[in-house]
């Protein structure tokens, strides 16, 4: 505000106070005689003096602003009732018998109204926030038609005129009531009384001038936008003000245009809200006026409305309370117009009600769906909601939106039901075609999510199923829907074991009928596959769907970009995804040599050996073997060492099935690569320890696999041991002795490494491994003791010493013999160097004459004893039960 204006305002307040004081003194003298002529007029006049005095005193005090305003509002209301309940001027003048009395009565009448007006001017001059009193005056006036409505409107117009002049030059204006007051004045601009209409139009014009001053920056920006768009604001120049009141009278379109262009979003929202509340007015005329203005305002300015959710919620509640509301169609039109500019807010609010949707909510969905221009936005918002899982707890406030039902997310169910309403709408066909793949997969996921929710209303099926069938029908895929019905596909989704098969049936049916949306669906599935899934079950459904789609449209092998996906899925965190991928890779065995990056594919399968899930490892073993059978020898030979090395850690797996399969496949690899034995000698020797020790496995399948593979190993190493592995000649200790003897003669340098590997099994929880490892380490020490250093022997003596206290009696007895062997070796190390050299020279001769140390007969072996065989079966059954 300029210093000139501030000075003028201060002078105005002082002059008002002085005039008021003089009036108080003079009035009692000048018009006191009127008390007997027109008592009601005199009472109103004298009462106003008292009320004004209290208001002025409160203005000068330090009372809490809110309490001050509430108190002043009560006083103003009392004054209002006194002033505007007095008779009209004609009636008052008739109370005087003489001409002088009539003149005095007229002056007293005008001064009474002026006194009330002056009180309002004093309040507004100090605080523009108190323009809110004018809003309440309109409400009081409408509540009682006996009040002098024309005179009320004159005062309101004058106060607004004063305020509009006062705010010129203000940087900002605090008048939050302008939106509601504008709504009341707009309705009065269409009043049947032309005098009231004139004053309302004038008041509305001044109000819009005040509103323009609320945010100068926003106004300049809006003016620029109006010029660019070709729209014309009705308050561009001061000269427009002279004609604006006449323009606003009874022209609802001009009224809503002026208000819409001028009011800030918060005020326009109040304007819209007030009109919405007036739709329920008992006076039909007012309700219809409000209806027309509300629709016109939203038609052009709905983008400025901020309380969209609250408006939609209010409409829903009103229609629920009164389904036959006289303004039902207007309310539904409001929903449509709000959807046009704020589709996301409307959709989220419509989702925020209990499911299944009632008739009112379905009507509102239809209203929202009737606006075809925003159909893509509506569907994208619904797709966003469909990413949620029904019944899932909302842990993060970031992910929570407007779930007022409870702490669980039921919006996806509501979204599925909404699609049943929206998808058949003709204007949505084009938008549906654009997002067909997204809708298809989202509803597939919802079908699988909903199997646990069991949301069934009467005999109706799940809404996700209904929506999916509607999607197929609306997309020209009626034959697919019919085929799925014949295959009883939909019932599959109700049961956990078979719901994945239901996904397969949908993909299969779409493929069989060559659905035209295949290219965009494949593109979207690929996009889903390379992104991180929100949930593990999402990946399963995506893999099943994509695999079946590819199977029907591509021949094996798949294009490289899709093979990359399957390679990545092999090591997915979800075991089901890994197994699905491995299963598909296994099916490519016949064309394995046509794959460009076959090595990377095989390596990904090998990586699956490291999985913590035993079923994934088993599937990986089976897949790898199928591929290797068909793999060309050149590629096979380049990877055989790595593959063989990958089998070795699995030979000691806790699962007997994995142990036997890894050992068996290791032997088959050696047989396949018999021409490349020289490449595999190190791997063979590195795997000897588990192959020997697990000959005594309690599971017959593991022991038999060891015999099979060990026979191949000794054959490749040209050792005469293979016949000892036949059942009729088999003796564990004899096999060990033979292998150790051959090691000394052909691969002496490996003996210390094998001793080190065997030490790791001495602490096994399995008795048979402790027994066999004690025997093996004893013979290795016997034939290779001359290779050991003193420190190594001390370590081994310490390890064997633990087995001397083993809980198993047989293990303790075997350990005593092995301990003695190491003691003898240690003793020999203390002899002269000449004796040690002599022993090393004749060591090979001595080994050939070595006799059995332990006399550990085959009947002692659990895998071969009739009694032990029974125990082995029981152990296997127990182990399977644990798994």
From TrEMBL:
The gene is MROH9. One of its GO terms (cellular component) is cytoplasm. Residues 567-815 form the Maestro/Maestro-like HEAT-repeats domain. Keywords: Repeat. It comes from Mustela putorius furo. This is Maestro heat like repeat family member 9. Residues 149-379 form the Maestro-like HEAT-repeats domain.
């Amino acid at each position: 505000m300029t210093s000139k204006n501030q000075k003028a305002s201060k002078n105005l307040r002082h002059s008002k106070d002085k005039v008021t004081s003089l009036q108080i003194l003079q009035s009692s003298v000048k018009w006191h005689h009127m008390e007997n002529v027109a008592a009601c007029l005199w009472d109103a006049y004298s009462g106003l003096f008292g009320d004004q005095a209290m208001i002025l005193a409160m203005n000068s005090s330090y009372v809490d602003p809110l309490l001050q305003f509430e108190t002043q509002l009560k006083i103003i209301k009392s004054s209002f009732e006194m002033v505007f309940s007095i008779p009209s001027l004609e009636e008052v003048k008739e109370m005087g018998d003489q001409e002088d009395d009539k003149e005095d009565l007229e002056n007293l009448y005008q001064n009474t109204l002026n006194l009330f007006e002056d009180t309002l001017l004093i309040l507004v001059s100090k605080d523009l926030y108190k323009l809110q009193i004018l809003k309440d005056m309109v409400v009081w006036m409408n509540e009682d038609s006996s009040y002098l409505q024309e005179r009320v409107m004159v005062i309101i117009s004058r106060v607004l005129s004063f305020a509009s002049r006062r705010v010129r030059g203000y940087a900002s204006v605090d008048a939050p009531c302008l939106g509601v007051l504008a709504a009341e004045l707009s309705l009065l601009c269409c009043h049947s009384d032309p005098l009231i209409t004139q004053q309302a139009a004038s008041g509305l014009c001044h109000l819009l001038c005040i509103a323009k001053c609320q945010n100068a920056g926003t106004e300049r920006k809006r003016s620029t936008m109006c010029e660019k768009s070709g729209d014309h604001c009705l308050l561009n120049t001061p000269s427009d003000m002279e004609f604006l009141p006449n323009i606003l009278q009874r022209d609802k379109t001009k009224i809503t245009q002026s208000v819409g262009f001028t009011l800030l979003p918060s005020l326009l929202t109040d304007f819209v809200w007030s009109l919405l509340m007036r739709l329920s007015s008992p006076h039909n005329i007012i309700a219809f006026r409000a209806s027309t203005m509300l629709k016109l305002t939203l038609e052009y300015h709905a983008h400025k409305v901020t309380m969209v959710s609250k408006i939609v919620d209010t409409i829903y509640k009103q229609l629920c309370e009164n389904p036959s509301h006289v303004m039902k169609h207007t309310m539904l039109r409001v929903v449509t117009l709000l959807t046009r500019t704020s589709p996301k807010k409307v959709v989220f609010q419509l989702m925020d009600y209990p499911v299944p949707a009632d008739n009112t909510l379905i009507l509102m969905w239809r209203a929202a769906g009737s606006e075809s221009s925003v159909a893509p936005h509506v569907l994208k918002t619904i797709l966003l909601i469909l990413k949620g899982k029904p019944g899932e707890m909302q842990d993060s406030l970031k992910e929570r939106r407007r779930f007022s039902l409870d702490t669980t997310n039921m919006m996806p169910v509501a979204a599925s039901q909404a699609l049943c309403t929206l998808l058949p709408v003709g204007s949505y066909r084009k938008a549906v075609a654009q997002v067909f793949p997204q809708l298809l997969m989202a509803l597939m996921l919802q079908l699988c999510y909903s199997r646990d929710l069991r949301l069934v209303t009467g005999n109706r099926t799940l809404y996700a199923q209904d929506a999916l069938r509607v999607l197929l029908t609306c997309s020209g895929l009626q034959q697919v829907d019919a085929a799925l019905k014949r295959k009883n596909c939909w019932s599959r989704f109700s049961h956990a074991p078979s719901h994945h098969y239901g996904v397969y049936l949908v993909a299969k049916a779409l493929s069989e009928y060559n659905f035209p949306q295949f290219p965009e669906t494949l593109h979207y599935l690929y996009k889903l596959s390379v992104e991180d899934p929100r949930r593990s079950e999402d990946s399963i459904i995506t893999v099943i769907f994509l695999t079946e789609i590819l199977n029907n449209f591509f021949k094996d092998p798949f294009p490289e970009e899709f093979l990359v996906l399957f390679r990545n899925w092999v090591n997915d965190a979800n075991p089901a995804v890994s197994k699905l991928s491995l299963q598909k890779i296994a099916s490519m065995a016949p064309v394995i040599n046509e794959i460009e990056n076959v090595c990377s594919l095989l390596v990904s399968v090998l990586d699956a050996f490291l999985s913590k899930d035993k079923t994934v490892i088993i599937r990986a073993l089976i897949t790898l073997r199928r591929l290797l059978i068909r793999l060309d020898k050149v590629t096979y030979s380049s990877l055989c060492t790595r593959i063989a090395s990958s089998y070795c850690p699995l030979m000691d797996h806790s699962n007997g099935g994995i142990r036997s399969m890894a050992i068996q496949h290791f032997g088959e690899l050696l047989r396949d690569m018999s021409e490349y034995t020289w490449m595999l000698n190190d791997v063979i020797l590195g795997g000897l320890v588990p192959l020997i020790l697990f000959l005594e496995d309690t599971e017959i399948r593991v022991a038999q696999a060891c015999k099979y593979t060990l026979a191949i190993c000794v054959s490749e190493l040209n050792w005469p041991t293979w016949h000892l592995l036949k059942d009729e000649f088999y003796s564990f200790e004899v096999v060990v002795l033979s292998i150790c003897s051959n090691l000394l003669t052909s691969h002496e340098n490996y003996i210390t490494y094998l001793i080190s590997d065997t030490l790791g099994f001495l602490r096994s929880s399995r008795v048979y491994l402790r027994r066999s490892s004690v025997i093996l380490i004893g013979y290795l020490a016997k034939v290779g003791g001359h290779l050991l250093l003193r420190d190594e022997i001390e370590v081994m003596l310490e390890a064997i010493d633990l087995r001397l206290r083993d809980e198993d009696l047989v293990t303790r007895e075997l350990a005593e013999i092995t301990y003695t062997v190491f003691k003898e070796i240690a003793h020999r190390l203390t002899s002269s160097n000449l004796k040690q050299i002599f022993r090393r020279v004749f060591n090979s001769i001595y080994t050939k004459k070595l006799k059995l140390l332990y006399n550990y007969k085959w009947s002692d072996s659990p895998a071969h004893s009739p009694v032990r065989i029974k125990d082995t079966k029981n152990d296997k059954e127990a182990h399977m039960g644990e798994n």
